Structures are given as C-alpha cells and as structure tokens.
Give the backbone structure.
Amino acid sequence: MKLLVTGGAGYIGGVVVHQLAAAGHTVVVVDDLSSGHADVLPEGVEFHKLDVRDVASVLTPEAGFDGVLHFAAKIEVGESVLYPERFWANNIGGTMALLDAVRAARVPRLIFSSTGSLYVASDKPSTEETPVLPMNPYALTKYTVDKMLEGEARAHGLGAVSLRYFNAAGASGSLGERHDPESHLIPIVLQVAAGKRENLALYGDDYDTPDGTCVRDYIHVEDLARAHMLALETIKPGRHEVYNLGNGNGFSNLEVIEAVRAVTGHPVPVVLQPRRPGDVVIGIASSEKARRELGWEPQRPDLHDIIRSAWEFYSARLSG
C-alpha cells in the first residue's frame, strides 16, 4: 500500500513508519518537527516538513494513497490545561483539514492515534464500552476526533479505526522517547537514575489506590506499532472501530520507580509534590476486542523489559 503518516517523525509514529517500511509499504511522512525528529526516518521514506493543516498539498487525488495513519497532535496534558486553544487548533483543526483532504482524494482507510486516558477512572480494566469522561483538554480533543471519524465513516464511507493507547513506553532499538521537555514518567525517572535530574517530583501520594499513587497500564511501543499493521488489514468501508491497546496490568508510580531502580542499579531520590490538575488516577486497559478482532497480543508485556529497552536507548544516547 501507499500510506501517508502524519506525525511520522515522532515517538510512536517513527516506530510505526519503520514497521511499515520493513513490510514493503510505500511510506510518505508529513511532520512539522515541532516535537518529532527527521533522523528517525528510515531510508526510502519520502518526507515533507509540513503542518498537518496544510496536508492537502501532499494528500492530493493524483497521489494515489491507499491509507492514512494519523499521529500528528499535541500531547502534553499539562500544556492542554494551561493553553487549551492550542489543542483545539492543532488536534481538532488539523484533523478537520486532514479529513477534507482524505475525502477529496478518496482515500479509503484511516487509522487514528487516540488515547485510553478519556475513560472514567476505575480499578477495573476499561473496555471500549466504558463510559467516557475526558479529564483534560488533550483527552477531550482525542475523543472529539474519535467522534469525527464515526461521523465521517457513516456519511462518506471512510473505513476508520481509533486505537486508544494506554501508556506507550520502551524503545525499539535506536527509536525511543525524545520529548523536550520530557513529561512522561519512565524517561523522567531514567533521567534521575542517570544523574541528569537531582530528583523525581512525585505528584500526589494520597489517591485512592493501593499505595496512594496513580496507576497506569504500560504498553511497549513495538506492540503498539504492530497493532497498526494489523488494523490496516481489517478496516471495513463505512465503519469506524475503536480498540483499546494495553497490557491489562496496572503499575503505580511507586512501582515504576522501584522497577527503574532495579533495572539501572541507581538510586532515584523522590520529592513529593501536590497533585497535578488533569491527571487520571487509574488507567488500565481491557484489550480483549483487539485480541479477538485484530489477532493482536502484546509480545513485550513485562514492565522491567519495557524499562530495560528504554534504559538501553537512553544510555546509548548519553554515550554518544
């Protein structure tokens, strides 16, 4: 297939691009590099440094695309609370522009990078039928796009899939998290272990969880990427499907810290801070639908393995 990947120079998008290229697909990437890195792209991939709102210049009727994988979005929860207008403009406005181009070019299939953080917090794994209650503007924009795709499929026959990731983590060889500033827990804890930060700010230890800290479901980035490959083969015209992607296991922030200490052999000093607005307390996935309909199963579910792959990536970058 000939596939357009928006945000394909980012963390998850980059791993997906590598898997697509390795499978023999023709891949074209659009990324404005506001958070992505062009050096993650494999040889042979056509690249356009472009805002997703200008995607119609690449996604033309003559280009002959068979599908789109849409990763381009602002993702920082804290920023979304402080500057929600940036998220309306980029995440929603960008998707509107993309869908206009998809419609004009008669592209038959689209996969969207959604999020599991929009579900109502519960100690039970969230299914695709779990009530939705976005707790921050970031999650709200993702849910809005999910509903946009539902309408687009019904009205215009697009085959669409929303993959609701829980917490993407780990690295795939030389491809790992390179956010600046970094806001995800595992790479931040690794920075502390490496001596690049004095300590870890732990936001809240008084939640209604076993150890008082937030609980997350961590899924290896390679497993997430593989789900996109499977979804490409199952998309049906005029249908919008939603799939949760996670391990089905929850790990608290304190458990992640202990796992980093075990993997790296380094101390991780912790400084307790007040709760942050917009943080989801518990997020655990039920991925039964993805297992049943996509044939998808996490291959790297172990938290220590996930952290070890991230540590190897981070250590290699530190050593040059």
Observations:
- Residues 2-169+218-245 form a domain with the Rossmann fold fold (CATH 3.40.50.720).
- The chain has two domains: 2-169+218-245, 185-216+248-318.
- The longest helix spans residues 84-105.
- The first strand starts at residue 2 and ends at 6.
